[in-house]
Amino acid sequence: MHQILExxxxxxxxxxxxxxxxxxxxxxxxxxxxxxVFGILDERQQNIKQVYDQLDEDRRAMESTRKxxxxxxxxxxxxxxxxIQAAVKEAQALRDNLVAxxxxxxxSIVVQGRSENERERQAAFLEMRQQxxxxxxxxxxxxxxxxxxxxxxxxxxDDFIGSVGTGPKTAGVAQSANxxxxxxxxxxAAAY
Length: 192
Fold this sequence. Notes:
Layout: H1 2-8, H2 12-144, H3 150-166, H4 170-178, H5 183-191
């Protein structure tokens, strides 16, 4: 084999020396350079891994915060919806109360108006009856031809008002106005 190497022009001493030099160089590079380079690369890889881990953690935290905000927002919307519905119900109840109060007041006003109207009607009716009685008494006095005293006239007015309230007894009042009275006088008094 030595002859083959010489025939090819290869010096095995030189190859062996180069091989030993390469191993020594590799050992020195590994000891002084590669350890530092690999250390720097490992450190760089750790830093990158930490950055990615931090990014993943931040992303998870942001996702969690986003979910919390969405839940809070949904809760706020639900609370706002409930408050709006409560306010609407309260407004409807207030409106119903106001309408009921207005209806009660209107009914009270109507009842009061009717009552006042009835009182005015009664007062007008009494005044009209008194005027009718006064006219009847005057007519009866003219028919009879005598003058009545104020006391007698007041008594006759009261009697007549009482009789008008219970039914038509105009002929009886005319008869009592003159004591006995004839049929013509009674007809004349009834006409007035």
